[in-house]
Specification:
By secondary structure, the protein is α+β, with helices and mostly antiparallel strands. The protein contains 16 helices and 8 strands. The chain has helices at residues 2-22, 24-29, 35-62, 68-76, 88-94, 103-112, 117-144, 148-151, 154-171, 179-196, 199-210, 216-248, 267-286, 306-330, 407-417, 443-455, and strands at residues 257-258, 261-266, 292-294, 301-305, 340-346, 350-356, 421-427, 431-439. Strands 3-5-6-8-7 form a 5-stranded mixed β-sheet. Strand 1 (257-258) and strand 2 form a beta hairpin. The protein is globular and about 95 Å long.
């Protein structure tokens, strides 16, 4: 009887530990709202662990006559410890310093290993295997620090569970030693990118739902940090994947490309291509579309990530075109639509793009809110979601002219990530001028790099 009671108590304690660690209890009681609550839950967990350990000792004392095969069978049926708030790995990784990088860092890393492409990929994989879990752990801890009711939001929970899955894949992945290991590592990175793709729409909806439960400033900080972290993770992963493909198929590598970075990206050509996509969206939604008038005469080439520039142009052109069309219709105007204008002002290490429209301007009462996440001048629509910056074709989905208030603030976040910014000048009853400032590699630096490559 004593042995039976000890075994029963042990199993109960282990079941409780499993529930706590796997997050089953967390889903019922909600995420800890503050650090004191988190410490209290950790204290409870430690108590259960101590009790379970003591029970295990008693159990072994009374089961000395149990055969080894029976002991192995019993231990193999114990529940697996899952990842949850109580997993100290998150804090261990989250307390590590965050490596911040620039476009120059990515270029210099490739130049350093240009004579040994295999070592380039192996070193890059080793770095990502350490750096990506740190970034994920910090975001997991941010979610756990949200107020109770925000942490139980279904969209936040979906984001959290995806982060934990990605974290587990990275931290349990074996060391990348050979190029064959690296090839498999690339597949895992791509799986994580695909896994995270639906999270941006979820974050947009979550921010709308959390707005009534959180201070606006704290919500803005949470969303901004989450998006910046997403940008950083995707840039690092996509840079490695692009380097991998360029190594595997060098004949398919375009001149001037270093991974995902295009050293002489033709910004005006990109702008024209994106605006053609916007015109298709306009015709699908309104039946009419404005033209793009490029005021800049000279070519504007800059070292930048093509996907980022496409995304920022898409959001700004979409916003300008919609304002132009809706103001044109509201005024009952006749004749041709006024064009959307684009000007570019390049200097050595910065380029400023000015996008202006004749959309009637932003009403004074909402002017201060247009850069806030979750603010939109369009009615709420559950089907409208922000686009993925790497899939321009998604812009042609149904009802794409309206979003969830993420377009402009996300564009600013993308610009700020590498030291740029986004601002605007509002002219009431006329239109708006948006100034997209991008910081990039010094053009003199690029000239020196090109000269060195030509001389060798």
């Amino acid at each position: 009887p004593v042995l039976f009671l000890c075994c029963l108590l042990f199993k109960l304690m282990m079941a409780m530990m499993w529930l706590l660690r796997s997050g089953k209890v967390r889903r019922v009681v909600g995420v800890a709202a503050s650090q004191p609550e988190a410490q209290a839950w950790n204290h409870i967990l430690l108590c259960h662990q101590s009790c379970a350990a003591a029970t295990l000792c008693s159990s072994r004392k009374f089961s000395s006559q149990t055969t080894p095969s029976e002991q192995n069978k019993s231990s193999s049926t114990l529940p697996t410890m899952g990842a949850s708030f109580y997993d100290q790995r998150f804090r261990r990784y989250g307390n590590k310093p965050l490596y911040k990088f620039t476009i120059m860092d990515l270029v210099n890393f490739e130049k350093k290993h240009k004579d040994d492409r295999e070592q380039l990929l192996l070193h890059s994989a080793a770095f990502l295997r350490e750096a990506l879990p740190v970034r994920l752990a910090k975001r997991i801890l941010d979610i756990y620090a949200l107020p109770y009711i925000c942490g139980t939001n279904p969209n936040i929970q979906a984001i959290l569970n995806t982060y934990i899955d990605m974290f587990n894949k990275l931290t349990t992945y074996p060391p990348v030693i050979t190029i064959e290991d690296q090839n498999k590592f690339v597949d895992m990175l791509q799986e994580n990118l695909d896994l995270a793709r639906p999270l941006l729409p979820r974050l947009a909806r979550a921010s709308n739902e959390l707005a009534q439960h959180m201070d606006r400033k704290k919500l803005r900080e949470f969303v901004t940090v989450t998006i910046k972290s997403r940008i950083g993770r995707r840039v690092l992963a996509e840079q490695h994947i692009a380097l991998h493909h360029q190594y595997m198929d060098p004949n398919n590598c375009k001149e001037g490309e270093i991974g995902a970075i295009t050293m002489n990206l033709d910004a005006i050509h990109i702008a024209r291509g994106v605006f053609e996509q916007v015109k298709q969206i306009c015709r699908s939604s309104y039946g009419i579309a404005p033209d793009l008038e490029v005021v800049t005469i000279t070519d504007v080439k800059l070292p930048y990530l093509k996907s980022h520039l496409e995304y920022m142009f898409l959001e700004l052109f979409k916003n300008a075109a919609r304002a132009t069309i809706e103001n044109y219709i509201a005024q009952g105007s006749q004749g041709d639509l006024p064009p959307v204008k684009l000007e570019a002002f390049p200097i050595r290490n910065r380029t400023t793009f000015c996008i202006s429209d004749n959309g009637g301007g932003i009403p004074a009462e909402i002017e201060d809110n247009v850069m806030e996440y979750s603010f939109t001048t369009v009615g709420n629509s559950k089907s409208d979601v922000p686009y993925d910056e790497n899939v321009l074709g998604q812009a042609l989905s149904s009802n794409p002219m309206a979003g969830e208030g993420f377009g402009l603030p996300m564009t600013r976040t993308y610009a700020q990530y590498f030291g740029g910014d986004l601002s605007f000048e509002n002219i009431h009853h006329h239109g708006v001028q948006f100034f997209l400032r991008l910081k990039h590699l010094d053009r003199e630096y690029l000239k020196n790099v090109e000269d060195q490559e030509f001389s060798t």
